[in-house]
Design a protein that fits this description.
- The protein is an alpha/beta fold and 499 residues long.
- It contains 24 helices and 10 strands.
- The chain is elongated.
Length: 499
């Protein structure tokens, strides 16, 4: 007997078996219980989320003589007849291969024939967006006023390609991506049912690889069962998926973030020589960086990501060495590279270029030249403050105290994320005169930054937390007459009159 794949063998037969689509199941069950059945439904969503399965369950449930909680009982004579492949009351049509206007006209001509077994004749039109424009128009009138015994269920992955005239005549149900935890629970149930041993982390990895599609996840699970000979391990799943060794990958990403181009390229060469796909490697690097950012910024990252503790510890250590901005910079480079692979045949060269670019930019990622200049200036101001604090230091009170206060203001601005305001502030000269704190700005651009309303509000807030004086900002134009006047006089001589 031919082997039946897991996603076909464990396709849901009742609404109770449908996972991740509770909002749709509840609505359809209530319609069946109340008898308020619509004449046209539109099921839309990504692949493997249960559109066709729910359509088949619904088509049997509306015909069932004794539905159980809205689901078909599977035991009455109608359910038994509809379970046979030769029944004529549930017709599944593939619009991808039957998309011409003549085929749709043939369907609409036969729609007036009553059902042979149940109360309704249900037409499930899969991939309905593939119908031609004329075929959509031929279907339109029938959707608007079908016979009482006819129900249309249109399924599509590309709802944007369906004409608005069709959409307006259907009850629309959007199928969501199924949560990883729900897929993992389903896989564990199936493995227990068929007697397959497994590691918890292996199941979580299979579920995550499905990316919200139950069918994709079960197809991967099928391959893992065969590869691992009935004992699905984490390492076995990694082999099937072609993903990289997490330990080596963490080291590789660490070298990129640290700017160690030599070691990073050596790792690329090793992985390439072992037959690793560069596209998969770029995806793995991006996924690892995403996980590292989660671990660094989210307290419940371990629960969300479902990673082994040793991996979480390695990602935590990586996050302690590098900032979120650095990791985001490399992450963006890798995700951009993933999109370029489809247009290139030189995947290794493309990936190596991305690694070099990310590694050389990584040390500076998240820190602009202006911000580094600001940090240096604030450090200089802080050194002056420390000098002022030394015992026995004799200060020139007004000037030096003002510098000390302004250094603290710049630090407060930097803490608030207002780096450019702080940089503009450090360009100014300051002095304290009684109850007034004067900031003298010699640059028009800096003056514009400091006097902008939103910037001034931040500056006032930072200043008030440090000093209780009145803050006055003045623009000062300087002219060094001792140096400029002799030069100008030599150019124009006695004819120059200075007022």
């Amino acid at each position: 007997m031919a082997y039946t794949s897991l996603y076909r063998r464990y396709r849901p037969d009742t609404f109770r078996d449908v996972i991740g689509q509770e909002h749709i199941v509840r609505t359809l069950v209530n319609q069946i219980k109340s008898g308020n059945i619509g004449h046209a439904y539109l099921f839309t969503g990504t692949r493997g989320t249960g559109k066709t399965s729910v359509a088949k369950i619904f088509s049997r449930a509306v015909n069932c003589l004794h539905p159980v909680d809205g689901s078909p009982c599977g035991k009455c004579e109608v359910c038994l007849e509809l379970a046979l492949s030769g029944n004529f009351d549930i017709l599944e049509i593939d619009a991808a291969s039957n998309n011409s206007v003549d085929q749709i006209r043939e369907l609409t001509d036969k729609i007036n024939f009553p059902p042979t077994i149940g109360r309704y004749k249900v037409y499930i039109v899969d991939e309905v967006h593939m119908l031609s424009k004329s075929a959509h128009n031929a279907l339109l009138k029938t959707l608007e006023e079908p016979p009482e015994h006819a129900i249309f269920i249109l399924a599509t992955t590309e709802v944007h390609a369906i004409p608005a005239t069709i959409l307006s005549r259907c009850l629309r149900f959007d199928f969501r991506l199924v949560p990883t935890s729900a897929i993992a629970a389903r896989i564990r149930f199936i493995f227990d049912e068929i007697g397959v041993e497994y590691e918890e982390q292996a199941v979580n990895m299979i579920a995550a690889a499905g990316q919200g599609s139950v069918r994709d996840a079960l197809s991967i699970a099928d391959m893992c069962v065969s590869f691992c000979a009935g004992n699905v391990t984490y390492d076995g799943v990694m082999e099937v998926l072609g993903t990289s060794d997490p330990v080596k990958l963490v080291g590789f990403v660490g070298n990129i973030l640290s700017g160690n181009v030599d070691e990073a390229l050596k790792t690329v060469a090793e992985m390439c020589d072992s037959g690793k796909s560069m596209a998969i490697l770029a995806s793995d690097v991006a996924a690892l960086l995403r996980n590292a950012i989660y671990v660094k910024t989210c307290e419940t990252a371990a629960e969300i990501l479902s990673l082994p503790e040793e991996q979480c510890a390695a990602l935590r250590a990586l996050g302690e060495k590098h900032s979120v901005q650095k990791m985001l910079s490399v992450l963006k480079t890798m995700t951009a590279t993933e999109g370029e692979f489809r247009y290139s045949t030189q995947h290794r060269i493309l990936f190596e270029s991305a690694v070099i670019s990310a590694a050389t930019e990584a040390p500076a990622a998240g820190t602009t030249a202006k911000e580094r200049e600001l940090e240096q200036k604030i450090a200089q101001l802080e050194r002056k403050v420390q000098a002022l604090a030394k015992p026995g230091f004799k200060s020139a009170p007004a000037k030096e105290d003002a510098v000390q206060v302004w250094a603290r203001v710049a630090s407060e601005l930097q803490k608030k994320g207002a780096a450019f305001i702080a940089l503009a502030a450090t360009e100014a000269e300051v002095e304290s005169d009684g109850g007034v704190f004067r900031v003298k700005v010699g640059s028009s651009s800096c003056m514009k930054i400091l006097t902008d309303k939103s910037n001034r509000d931040l500056l006032n807030e930072a200043f008030s937390s440090v000093c209780g004086q009145k803050l006055v900002i003045e623009e000062v134009k300087k002219l060094d007459e001792d140096k400029s006047l002799p030069y100008i006089t030599s150019m124009f001589g006695k004819y120059l009159e200075i007022k």
